[in-house]
Design brief:
Layout (H helix, E strand, L loop, with lengths): L5 E3 L2 E3 L3 E3 L8 H9 L4 E3 L3 E2 H17 L20 H13 L4 E6 L3 H12 L5 E5 L11 H18 L4 E5 L6 H10 L4 E4 L7 E3 L4 E3 L11 H10 L6 E4 L6 H10 L3 E4 L1 H6 L3 H16 L24 H9 L4 H4 L9 H4 L1
Parallel strand pairs: 3-4, 3-13, 4-6, 5-6, 6-7, 7-8, 8-9, 9-12, 12-13
Antiparallel strand pairs: 1-2, 10-11
Helix pairs in contact: 4-5, 7-8, 8-10
Length: 347
């Protein structure tokens, strides 16, 4: 029988399938269902800077409302400099107690002090690791790309210095040189790289002439960018590699591991097919490994990475040029009817 064990952020996992951060994991019953379905680990929903600031503002407004009631009571409360998202921390503690598998906390702050302060508070809940969610939509035309990247490297270093648990970074692909930035984060001590952050983008309702924010589920083809970067990073970074987008089947997971990923994170597939579908994804990986004769994940991880691929063109622009030059043979690249062949029938 195939052994699906792997290692992520230095943490031993029973298989490579992690449930990523989402609203699903906020419910204790869902957490237990996820564990029962076979997930190797869970990433708890991100704590966002907006939550930190909003709760602080609400607390301050409550404190201010009781000030100066009379000359003898300028205030009825002690000096609370910063009242953080206590409810979030409480739910995170409950989540840690509810499951036995590794639980990873996620944080998305803006200010340097917030990153460090809340990294320490999240660590205190007993989580196994931290995920720094470097989600940012830059709206400043004049902020230099070097400043953005240096700021993230600095945040990682300071968080690493403040906590003892492993720290990963969840990135978008939108850097001038994504590989160089990841290499710098790797040298700065990142335990893992999550590829890639799925940015929520507004849509426009042309009848109401207003913005709206539909759910931004991934599709299977969305995993191709992560496959490419996993293949390029394999053998060149010390941190673990995790594919985060477009993992809907066992086949999707296998592809990214062949490219070089250690693990995958699943979210959209669970919204579409239910939490129990996790066991199907895991079973598909095991079935494929048995058919192929692989006894462990390491036997095929990175087999089709840039480092191990015999073709010098797979990860380069030449592949794209080759397809354009042979566009008359389009059906060779996209044969009709292939989408109707089930995964099971192919194996």
């Amino acid at each position: 029988m195939a052994n699906l064990k792997t290692k992520y952020m230095g943490i031993n996992l029973k298989n490579p399938v992690i449930v990523g951060a989402s609203n699903l994991v906020q419910d204790v019953k869902n957490l237990q269902k996820i564990e029962e379905a076979g997930a190797a680990a869970i990433v708890y929903k991100s704590l966002f800077e907006e939550q930190i600031q909003l709760e602080s503002l609400e607390m301050q407004n409550q404190l201010d409302s009781y000030q100066d009631w009379d000359p003898e009571h300028a205030t009825l409360f002690p000096d609370l400099e910063h009242a953080g998202p206590a409810e979030y921390i409480m739910h995170l503690k409950e989540a840690r107690e509810a499951v036995k598998i590794p639980l990873i906390a996620s944080i998305n702050a803006v200010y340097e002090d917030s990153w460090v302060e809340y990294a320490k508070r999240l660590e205190a809940t007993g989580v196994n690791g931290l995920e720094l969610n470097f989600y940012a939509n830059n709206t400043d035309f004049w902020k230099a790309e070097t400043d953005i990247e240096a700021e993230q490297v600095d945040i990682l270093k300071k968080v690493k210095a403040a906590v003892k648990i492993p720290v990963s970074v969840k990135l978008s692909p939108f850097y001038t040189n994504t590989l160089r930035h990841i290499a710098r984060l790797d040298r700065s001590g990142a335990s893992a790289f999550i590829l890639f952050n799925r940015l929520f983008q507004p849509d426009i309702d042309i009848q109401k002439e207003e913005h709206h924010f539909p759910y931004n589920f991934s599709s299977q083809n969305d995993n191709r960018l992560a496959i490419r970067y996993a293949g390029l990073l394999y053998g060149h970074v010390g941190g673990s590699i995790c594919s985060n987008t477009g993992i809907h089947t066992g086949e999707d997971a296998i592809k990214t591991i062949l490219a070089g990923a250690d693990t995958v994170q699943v979210v959209s597939a669970l919204y579409k097919k239910g939490i129990g579908y996790l066991s199907t994804i895991i079973l598909e990986i095991e079935k494929w490994m048995n058919v192929k004769g692989y006894q462990s994940i390491k036997d095929f991880r990175g087999k089709l990475s840039a480092k191990n691929d015999p073709s010098p063109f797979t990860y380069k622009r030449a592949q794209y040029v080759d397809i354009l030059m042979k566009s008359e043979n389009f059906e060779t690249f996209h044969p009709k009817g292939n989408e109707e062949i089930s995964w099971e029938d192919r194996w």
